[in-house]
Amino acid sequence: MKPAPFAYAKARSVDHAIELLGGMPGEARLLAGGQSLLATLNMRLSAPKLLIDLNGIGGLDGISVKNGQVEIGALTRHADAEHSSDIAKHAPLIAMAVPHIGHVAIRNRGTLGGSIAFADPAAELPACLLALGGEVEIAGAKGKRTVKSDHFFKGLFETALGSQDVLTAIRVPAATKNTRVGFAEFARRHGDYAMIGLAATARADGRGLADVRLAYFGVDATAVRAMKAEAALASGKLDDAVKQLAEDLDPHDDVQATGAAKKHLAGVLLRRVAKQLMEARP
Ligand SMILES: Cc1cc2nc3c(=O)[nH]c(=O)nc-3n(C[C@H](O)[C@H](O)[C@H](O)COP(=O)(O)OP(=O)(O)OC[C@H]3O[C@@H](n4cnc5c(N)ncnc54)[C@H](O)[C@@H]3O)c2cc1C
Fold it and tell me: Distance (Å, rounded) from C-alpha 236 to C-alpha 233?
């Protein structure tokens, strides 16, 4: 299929993009890497009247580490994050997750901002942002604002972004020597969207773990935290944590697997990721 006809505009700046969005309320879409948007246009799941291309805006990409945080510009390509020494050192959870996103060609074009804004429930990066307790920087008609990851993902492909908002960056806490991270997913083939996955962070506390955050993806309308399992794992009770998943998660059947299979796999992932969390980083 071919997309429905649309007009195209190249934004010169974030302010220009916001102005263009305001000129066609609800009828315009931002174009970043196009790796999700073009598929939805081609399948006519979406038929905006105007595409606003963000790719010519300078300064919307890039990775920096300041004030104990890693800031990643919205237009940073997955491939740039994958090969960044700053990401490897200061945001190791993102470094573990990015190679699981699609294939090389998709990672060369797709952007971190696009993935967070699209909020696919089976995508890796929204779950990482949630596990890291990160935040999203948004520019809109009324100025800039910051939204914490716990409040950003609202529902299926639904976020705190309004129709005149541009996601400009994400920020996550920079890893310290006590930071522990874990990541695992099940996909039918490497590069496929995950059937189910788990992104996790914790703080080493003596011989145990504190501040455990477990963010599952592929189980619900958004990435979700398994809070009862988090508490059990922080108490050093892995078997209890696995049992608590029955209360934390309620995965439904989908094209990839039954809800029952996903529930079982959630426990398998938790055991794998708990092992990673217990290991000190090199
Ligand atoms: C074959 C295939 C396999 C894939 N597999 C995976 C996978 O395993 N895991 C995974 O996570 N992803 C996967 N993807 C999707 C890929 O990661 C995309 O890069 C990502 O979902 C969207 O990023 P994008 O930059 O391409 O955004 P686009 O497609 O350009 O945009 C996606 C949506 O986000 C909005 N948007 C984009 N940027 C902004 C912004 N700065 N502010 C506000 N709104 C914005 C757009 O308007 C649009 O609605 C796959 C894609 C393909 C084609």
Answer: 5
Q: What is the 3-state secondary structure (H, E, C) of 202-265?
A: EEEECCEEEEEEEEEECCCCCCEECHHHHHHHHCCCHHHHHHHHHHHCCCCCCCCCCHHHHHHH
Angle at 135 between CA 203 and CA 116, to 5 degrees: 110
Residue 78 CA, chain-centre distance (Å), reads 11
pTM of the model: 0.97
Please report where in the chains the tokens 């990673």 appear, as a residue: 276
| Cα-to-centroid distance, 185 and ligand 1 (Å) | 19
Residues framing ligand 1 (Cβ under 6 A): 29-37, 39, 54, 74, 101-102, 106, 110-111, 113-115, 117-118, 120, 123-125, 161, 166-167, 193
Q: How many Å lie between the centroid of ligand 1 and the Cα of residue 114?
A: 5
Provide the phi-psi class of 30: left if phi over 0, else alpha when psi is between -120 and 50, else beta. beta
- pLDDT (tens place) for every residue of the chain, 282 residues total: 789 999 999 999 999 999 999 999 999 999 999 999 999 999 999 999 999 999 999 999 999 999 999 999 999 999 999 999 999 999 999 999 999 999 999 999 999 999 999 999 999 999 999 999 999 999 999 999 999 999 999 999 999 999 999 999 999 999 999 999 999 999 998 889 999 999 999 999 998 999 999 999 999 999 999 999 999 999 999 999 999 999 999 999 999 899 999 999 999 999 999 999 998 766
